[in-house]
């Protein structure tokens, strides 16, 4: 059966997703399919974590003690689902503001019977600051964030010194921060910002090979065939 699209309710709900005046995201006028809406409404009460200005006990949320990894901005969630299936002994918290992507990941969780993913639909900066305790994470993934290519918009880029310092503080010693981008100029900025954080050490001379756990997306594979670059950066907390 073909899914019929309907307006995305999240486009009317920006204030509840962030308190910050300058955001790294824009809630664009999007559309949700019937399936995305259905799975979001049915599955989020089970896998969703409500935003709160208080630390969350992730072991209690998942019902087990296991490595914990946060993914910031998971898009439609396809890579998130594949990584979680590839690493069933690790728990993943995906953060995303866009309802179509949240609904799609809810669908994948249900249809693929994935038990090690939870979702927070809120501004990642506020989630990391308010809900994630210091020295608690084994990893953070930031894959293909919006490059905000125009110079006047660079202040909106997610990877900035203050945010990287916050992410590093949430990692356990030895925990990793993995960023990836297909925008070369942003990759150069990422490398400079990450290298400038004293609590992080690069695992490579500059850019890292794509780790096995990060799947090659269809968009990425097409870009590579056309000669486009993709840059991975993997740093560890000292």
UniProtKB/TrEMBL annotation:
Its EC number is 2.1.1.33. Coiled coil: none annotated. Pathway: tRNA modification; N(7)-methylguanine-tRNA biosynthesis. It catalyses: guanosine(46) in tRNA + S-adenosyl-L-methionine = N(7)-methylguanosine(46) in tRNA + S-adenosyl-L-homocysteine. Substrate binds at residues 150, 182, 217-220. Gene3D superfamilies: Vaccinia Virus protein VP39. GO terms for cellular component: tRNA methyltransferase complex. InterPro entries: SAM-dependent_MTases_sf, tRNA_(Gua-N-7)_MeTrfase_Trmb, tRNA_methyltr_TrmB_bact. S-adenosyl-L-methionine binds at residues 71, 96, 123, 146. Belongs to the class I-like SAM-binding methyltransferase superfamily. TrmB family. Catalyzes the formation of N(7)-methylguanine at position 46 (m7G46) in tRNA. PANTHER family: 3-DEOXY-D-MANNO-OCTULOSONIC-ACID TRANSFERASE/TRNA GUANINE-N 7 - -METHYLTRANSFERASE (PTHR23417), PENTACOTRIPEPTIDE-REPEAT REGION OF PRORP DOMAIN-CONTAINING PROTEIN (PTHR23417:SF14). This is tRNA (guanine-N(7)-)-methyltransferase.
């Amino acid at each position: 059966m073909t899914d019929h699209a309907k307006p995305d309710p999240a486009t009317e709900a920006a204030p509840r997703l962030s308190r910050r005046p300058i955001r790294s995201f824009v809630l664009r006028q999007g559309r949700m399919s019937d399936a995305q809406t259905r799975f979001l409404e049915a599955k989020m009460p089970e896998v969703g974590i409500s935003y709160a200005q208080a630390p969350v006990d992730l072991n209690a949320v998942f019902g087990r003690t296991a490595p914990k990894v946060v993914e910031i901005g998971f898009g439609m969630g396809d890579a998130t689902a594949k990584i979680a299936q590839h690493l069933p002994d690790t728990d993943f918290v995906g953060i995303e503001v866009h309802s179509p992507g949240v609904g799609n990941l809810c669908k994948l969780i249900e249809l693929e019977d994935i038990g090690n993913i939870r979702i927070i639909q809120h501004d990642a900066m506020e989630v990391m600051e308010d809900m994630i305790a210091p020295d608690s994470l084994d990893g953070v993934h930031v894959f293909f964030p919006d490059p905000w290519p125009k110079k006047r918009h660079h202040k909106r880029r997610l990877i900035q010194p203050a945010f990287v310092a916050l992410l590093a503080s949430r990692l356990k010693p030895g925990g990793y921060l993995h960023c990836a981008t297909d925008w070369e100029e942003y990759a150069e900025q990422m490398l400079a910002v990450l290298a400038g954080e004293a609590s992080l050490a690069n695992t490579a001379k500059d850019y890292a090979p794509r780790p096995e756990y990060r799947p090659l997306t269809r968009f990425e594979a097409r870009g590579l065939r056309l000669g486009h670059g993709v840059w991975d950066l993997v740093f560890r907390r000292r």
